[in-house]
Model the fold of this input.
Amino acid sequence: MKPLLICDCDEVLLHMIRHFGTWLGDVHDIDVQLGAGDMLKSMTRRGGGPDLTIDDMRGYLDGFFPAEMHRQTLVPGADEAMQALGAIADIVILTNLAEHNVGPRSEQLARFGIVTRVEWNQGGKGDPVARLVAEHGNPVTVFVDDLAVHHDSVSRHAPQVHRLHMVAEPELAPHVPPAPAAHVRIDDWPAAQAWIADRFAAGAHAGA
Done:
């Protein structure tokens, strides 16, 4: 039985917020300050105006995905790490996008040489991670994501999974504290690849 890598995409494999921010500025006269905390708080209208609401943010995200996904760029080393880890493990990309974005996301990743299964979800990732682990026969599994809320969710639904917190956007990473529920924080792919490979080689579940 192969080990399993369940990996997020935005700010892990592909840069997102920097390109989303550029698009918001170019098209919608909205500035994004990466160090401002959560995404909604980072967005401000140029020239004043009412604060943006969560529905506003969701609307802009719907405008970015999938129409503007071509703007996104690869995180350095992500493609090499996926190739190397794919030789020893099964890989599933678990992206927190709506179902209609699965095809465009698969095509987007393939353009960067990352050809693998893509699954979608909305909300916490703990339950879908637990289902994927069970589907694969409960192998040694590593989960990689940039959001602390998902590490907390996975820790509760699939505590046997090794959890790596990665924020691969260098302008954002210094402002994001390590996720309390993650086992490790690593923000670059060469080091992350080595840590993941070590977990697979050890052949033990988290906490074993």
Notes: Strands lie at 4-7, 14-15, 30-32, 43-45, 73-74, 90-95, 117-120, 141-145, 162-165, 184-185. The longest helix spans residues 189-202.
